[in-house]
Amino acid sequence: MAARMQQGGPGRPTGTRFAQFKLVLLGESAVGKSSLVLRFVKDQFDDYRESTIGAAFLTQTIALDASTTVKFEIWDTAGQERYKSLAPMYYRNANCAVVVYDITQASSLDKAKAWVKELQRQANENIIIALAGNKLDLVTSDPSKRAIPTAEAEQYAREANLLFFETSAKTAENVRELFTAIAQKLPLDQASGPRGLGARGVRQGVDLRPETSASQGAMGGCNC
After folding, report:
1. Belongs to which family (predicted)?
2. For the chain, which domains are there?
3. pLDDT averaged over consecutive 10-residue blocks of the chain (224 residues)?
4. Residues with Cβ within 8 Å of residue 38, at least 6 apart in sequence
5. Which residues does 47 contact at the CB level (< 8 Å), separation at least 6?
6. Which DSSP category does 85 fall into?
7. In this structure, are residues 72 and 179 in contact, taking their beta carbons and an 8 Å threshold?
8. 75 - beta bridge partners?
9. CA 22, CA 71: separation in Å to the nearest integer?
């Protein structure tokens, strides 16, 4: 994807840097991908969310410092197996990815590892990957619910050269920190360009439901 780095521009003081990157979320269904994005983008949480259909698209910016702003173009993908074949169209040319698992479901980490392996094999060779163990709030209130020890996931992340955070979309714990850490790792001189934008500059998600279409902000995913 073409690089874009803007110096100054309308509404920006001269000398400021603005970098734009494509980010994709992957992981098993119901691990809380959409809830993480909703917390990051709108600082909201909904206990009851319908599963994402295909994918949804949102954007959010992070000010790394007084002169540097990073904009994420975020693709939140569906976790259901029947949508797995669509994933490459979203992670293709992605600059970064968040692979999410549920710390209360042991099988979800295995699924996350499979996604990481696929990204490392088929995605952009320089892609920044973060591993997020979500639903930290559940084990904070009841430690017996934890199925995946922090040390186990952390060791895997270290061996696979991944960023690692345990997060809670419900309480917002480590959500902002997760995306900020990704932004800090990205090469600001290789920002993604505006290819594929619609007539109004917004990419639309893919919605496979009959006679409907996904729009910016159309999200889903269970809890958390």
Report:
1. Belongs to the small GTPase superfamily. Rab family.
2. 13-185 (3.40.50.300)
3. 42 68 90 91 73 64 88 79 69 93 96 95 93 96 96 97 97 96 85 37 34 36 42
4. 44, 45, 46, 49, 169, 219
5. 170, 223
6. G
7. yes
8. 24, 57
9. 9
What pLDDT, on the 0 to 100 scale, is given for residue 137?
95
φ, ψ of residue 17 to 5 degrees: the values are -115, 135
pLDDT of residue 199: 28
What's the pLDDT score for residue 78? 65
According to the model, what pLDDT value does residue 173 have?
97
Tokens 């954007």 found at: 59
CA distances from 178 to 33, 108, 224 (A): 13, 19, 15
Nearest-10 Cα torsion for 27, 32, 34, 37:
-100
Residue 9, number of CB atoms within 10 A of its CB: 10
For every residue of 135-149, DSSP letters joined together read -HHHHHH-GGG--S-
Pair of tokens at residue 165: 């955070």
CA distance 107 to 34: 19
